[in-house]
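> call design_seq(struct)
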């Protein structure tokens, strides 16, 4: 039986979960910011609670976004660090995929599921999945009104915190923002690390980019 630890610092939660010997342990704190200050302490406390050592792990799972730029870097760095010391595989799981999996457990009509997270300035991050939570399209960033129009026209089920922005006429399967840590444990155990590397999924390019015109030419 696989021993697996999962880490989520993508959004407002600092969450860690551990599946060991058929028993699941978790610690979830909603903090908004400051993940770097408490994450390693939460991981240590989780191991103490479960009564196992890090060298008993078989795999690590970590949320890779979309989410907070800083939060993602904290969680992914921690996962990579633990994996490097123990020579363990790491599975990167997108926030949108985690929301789709949870929504698939709640859905009863077989419709495709559009998972959404709020963006800035009337935009959202979204991705379309099958009723079984298999990705049908890549994650994208766009206007909430565009996502609403498409979801209505194509009769998608919707889920995730961004679904609250769509307006009347929708009944979201859930309105989660941060991914559920038990979902990360479940997906982390079955997804192939080779196909799901621990790399940040930002979807949208950074607002600040280097000014090419201001660079000094190399000689």
């Amino acid at each position: 039986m696989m021993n697996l630890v999962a880490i989520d610092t993508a959004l407002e939660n600092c969450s860690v979960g551990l599946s060991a010997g058929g028993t699941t342990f978790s610690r979830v704190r909603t903090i908004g910011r400051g993940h770097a200050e408490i994450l390693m302490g939460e991981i240590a406390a989780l191991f103490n609670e479960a009564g196992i050592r890090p060298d008993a792990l078989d795999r690590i799972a970590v949320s890779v976004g979309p989410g907070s730029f800083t939060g993602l870097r904290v969680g992914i760095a921690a996962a990579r660090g633990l994996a490097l010391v123990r020579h363990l595989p790491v599975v990167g799981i997108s926030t949108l995929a985690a929301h789709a999996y949870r929504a698939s457990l709640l859905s009863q009509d077989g419709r495709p599921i559009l998972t959404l997270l709020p963006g800035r300035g009337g935009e959202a991050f979204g991705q379309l999945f099958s009723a079984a939570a298999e990705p049908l399209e890549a994650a994208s960033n766009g206007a909430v009104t565009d996502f609403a129009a498409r979801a209505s026209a194509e009769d998608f089920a919707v889920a995730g915190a961004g679904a609250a922005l769509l307006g009347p006429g929708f009944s979201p399967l859930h309105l989660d923002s941060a991914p559920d840590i038990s979902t990360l444990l479940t997906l982390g155990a079955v997804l192939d690390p080779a196909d799901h590397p621990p790399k940040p999924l930002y979807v949208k390019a950074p607002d600040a980019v280097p000014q090419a015109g201001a660079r000094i030419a190399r000689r």
